[in-house]
Amino acid sequence: MEAGSSSATLENGRRQKGIDKNQYSMPPKLEPFVPRKDHNPRELRSWAKRTGFVSNFSGEVLSTVNERKREQSGRDDTSEFDLESGEIDSKEKTYPKVEIDPIFGRPGANNRGIEIEPVSRPRPVRPILEDDGESSLREVMGRNENERRRIGAAPVFGINENERKVQPKTNVNGNRNLQEEALVSPMLSPGMEQKKDEGIEKREREADIYPGGGGEPAGPGGWRISQRMKCGIRDNPGYVPLIYYGIQHYLSLAGSLIFIPVIVVPAMGGTDKDTATVISTMLLVSGITTILHSYFGTRLPLVQGSSFVFLAPVLLILNSQEYRNLSEHKFRHIMRELQGAIIVGSIFQCSLGFSGFMSLFLRFVNPVVVSPTVAAIGLAFFSYGFPQAGGCVEISIPLILLVLIFTLVCQFSSFSCKPGLDSVPLSVILIWAYAFFLTAGGAYNYKGCSSAVPTSNILVDSCRRHAYTMKHCRTDVSNAWRTAAWVRVPYPFQWGIPVFHFRTSLIMIIVLLIASVDSIGTYHFSALQVHSKPPTPGIVSRGVGMEGFCSLLAGLWGTGTGSTTLTENVHTINVTKVASRRAVQLGAILLIFFSFIGKVGAILASIPQALAASVLCFVWALVVALGLSTLQYSQTASFRNITIVGVSLFLGLSIPAYVQQYQPKSSLILPSYFVPYAAASDGPVNTGSKDLDFALNGLLSMNMVVTLLLAFVLDNTVPGSRQERGVYIWSSAEDLTTDPSIRADYSLPARVAHCFRWA
Fold first, then answer.
1. Paired strand residues for 218
2. Where is the sequence biased in composition, kind Polar residues (predicted)?
3. Can you give the pTM of this predicted structure?
């Protein structure tokens, strides 16, 4: 487009061509501009030359008005900074100009480059360099805005107000691109400038909500992420802080690593020594799998271990008719059955991840699917939590209250009573000491009764009434300390050769699939927590495959459960603000060391069951809360999402209750809190195959399975936009090759990556 458009220039052109001035009394007939497929950016220039089109946004109107004002004021600016050459030109004043689309008044959409031509400018422009920062750009923007308001330039005809709305781009840290705003701002009308000022004020008001000023940066997809992290994913604060942070990570996960064996092993018929051995084995496997996942999995600072996802199938198998009346070696038979099922399920999970099929499955897994599924995992044990904790209310209720005080009152009030370690283990230590003093003081001593006598051998009626209280309240009931060895190394197949059955293997395959869905949400959420971009689908698939390999190790060693990413770890990162990968690895090394000391497992195995059940009540409630918090990534006010989550959760609890009522015999034999997990043997499904009936009835009696099935089908069939559904935004493979931060966070170690380059 030509740089000059004044009346003198047009008059000189007419005289040279010998054209009469009266011929231009009528406006010339403009020929229409017809775009072609092979669009040439220079065609706009030629069309503007032929038609005499002048844009109000190119600076000509501003220059004319400024020249008049300068002539009146007597000023003569003789120097101008040339942005193209970097020198001051005293003869011709130039300014870089973006060529404007003559039809729509917008910059050209050609990504190959922006055509810059010198345009006559009346006022000197101070050079805007990168070092000048935000102040220089805002100064130029404000000066142009004031001039535009004084002139009152009218908008270009034919432009819809909606077409002028330009959304400012944001970078990874949520900061606006001011250089692009400087180019776009001259195009906005005064009305749009007013809206723009109102938007800036609104953002400033929102920024005041978050402490520390400036607001929290927006992550990928515009989601808010935590801003204040003590330690990043690749930070190394030193060995002493790493040890402290590592212990803090694993102490907060005691509910999954310790209390599951305390609850499950006695129900399987195991002794106190077996409970101590399973706890030591679980510590060893959790340490090994955490190190493997931090090097060869997603490489996020996530702890691997026994999850509550596996608790329901364990209770389902141990309450089957085959093992219900078994008396001799019941624990070993059930453990071998669980080992075989976990090994088969882990092989399926490995093939799902390492084959890359999980990267295709990711498009169907969204927050609306993950949220009710994780919430159903915690809600599934509401009939088991307090019925077990209520066996000794004098220690269970104080423990729940103390945990709530440490986690809510101390952390969100002005009182400086926040404990140095996590609140859950500190509360357990205090209440455990309180229960020890009650036991030593004779609070649970009954005349003629002994806690060492099994309940089945007690003949006195008065002692039978107090047997349940002594078992759940006394701290000296367990003989694990007397029977456990000081040094014991857990080894594979320590319970015998695994037993493989189709029914239990099918159940464990579905359970590990649910664990994979849970891990997908944990990967995405934890990546935002540690200020990293989400992993690529390939990295997610690699992490799921590594979780399958970790479950294979758990099946070989015989922990009774599989291995997966612990959802509670996300809450630990959010509270402690520590996301160092080395802290998690060092804590895993300490976990492996303590697993070799048999007395450590014996001490943990001697925790009273009422104390363990009270802690699990809080942990299960936390799992429900973490699951529901995943909905923040979708539109929570959407009726579609509310309906899907509500229907999935309600039917996920109601359908298993319907299946569980087909067991009249079980209600007479098993305790009330085990009745919901005995529906696999006596369910409504009857196909003629006992193994298939057991598997289908067992799956339909588990809340998380029904909830996942309903949420998955509804979310992927009911219409909804990507923004409404809150579809997970994963990084692309190009980001992994171009962004050094993503490559440093998720890439395999150099030697390992060289060996697996073919993959």
1. 224
2. 1-10
3. 0.70
